[in-house]
Design brief:
The chain is mostly helical. The chain folds into 2 domains: about 50 residues, no CATH class; about 220 residues, no CATH class. The termini are far apart. Helix content is about 55%, strand content about 0%. The protein is built from 12 helices and no strands.
Length: about 300
């Protein structure tokens, strides 16, 4: 099937949305928004309110362009809040992985195939790490390569500092279970290494979505694991959707309570959720009484 849709002007974009039933309070302001936020990007925010089986995509409820923009802005603020929180978690995870394994196996442990479960994955991951090292402009990488020849590759505290969170997640997942993994999990208040492995993976997906300005409020995410016996207090209501953002937010908050006890994530989340538009709390997986949980007090 050949794609035949043609580009349309901003004024025609507004007319098309009006014909589909979207209301406009100020078309001049709407044109300004559409000249800076693409029609196609905003489609992700209008989609839940349209009949998408019908080729004309009519709106199925009374809604305005201004409300869609409010949802877009809310999602952007949520994305920035989560991205900032995951940055702290990523740095802490990277630190603990490098520290625990370096103290146990030396600075070049990441190159030891005996520590990994799958030799094929190990080879692929080290090759990916090598590419990230070669692309890096960090001064400490350049200094190592210009100063040392043996080993040829930098130690883990340099190499893994320039790896992506996604690659770090894959490397951690492939490492054999041992005391190091247990210690890392305990550092983050978890007794089950598999739960931490799952969290690192899920956080890396969310982090990349945020970094590439993807919508986050109603995205269906990988299933995040709920810890059965967490070291610290966790949410009591486990009957939540593990693939919606609320479940991941709970896990983010749990780790922040450990690594950054004076964080302001909770207060900022409270403030943001007070202005959640278009009754989208449920779509995000938030229970109606979520703030009454002792975990959120």
């Amino acid at each position: 099937m050949k794609y035949t849709k043609l580009p349309i002007s901003i004024s025609d974009q507004i007319e098309k949305l009006k014909k589909r039933g979207l209301q406009f309070g100020n078309e001049v302001k709407a044109a300004h928004y559409l000249s800076n936020i693409s029609y196609y990007r905003l489609r992700a925010y209008t989609y839940p309110f349209q009949d998408n089986i019908n080729p004309d995509h009519p709106f199925i409820k009374k809604i305005s362009f201004e409300e869609i923009i409010n949802l877009y802005v809310f999602d952007r603020r949520l994305r920035l809040l989560i991205f900032n929180a995951i940055e702290k978690i990523e740095i802490s995870l990277r630190t603990q992985i490098i520290y625990q394994y370096s103290m146990a196996y030396g600075g070049f442990w990441h190159l030891n195939p005996q520590l990994y479960n799958n030799s094929v994955y190990f080879a692929e991951q080290i090759a990916s790490l090598q590419k990230e090292i070669d692309r890096s402009n960090e001064a400490f990488i350049k200094h190592y390569k210009s100063t040392y020849t043996d080993p040829e590759e930098p130690p883990s505290w340099m190499s893994l500092e320039v790896s992506s969170m996604g690659l770090l997640s894959k490397i951690f997942s492939n490492l054999k279970k041992d005391r190091c993994k247990d210690q890392i999990a305990l550092h983050f208040g978890l007794k089950d290494v598999d739960v931490l492995t799952n969290w690192i993976y899920c956080f890396s997906i969310i982090r990349n979505t945020c970094a590439h300005h993807g919508r986050i409020w109603n995205r269906r995410l990988p299933q995040i694991a709920m810890p059965r016996k967490p070291v610290n207090s966790f949410i009591g209501n486990k009957q939540i959707h593990a693939n919606k953002i609320y479940a991941s937010i709970c896990c983010i908050h749990y780790i922040l309570n450990i690594i950054s006890p004076r964080h302001d994530f909770k207060n900022k989340l409270y403030a943001l959720m007070k202005c959640c538009p278009l009754l989208q709390e449920k779509e995000m997986g938030f229970p109606s009484d979520w703030q009454n949980e002792p975990f959120w007090q």
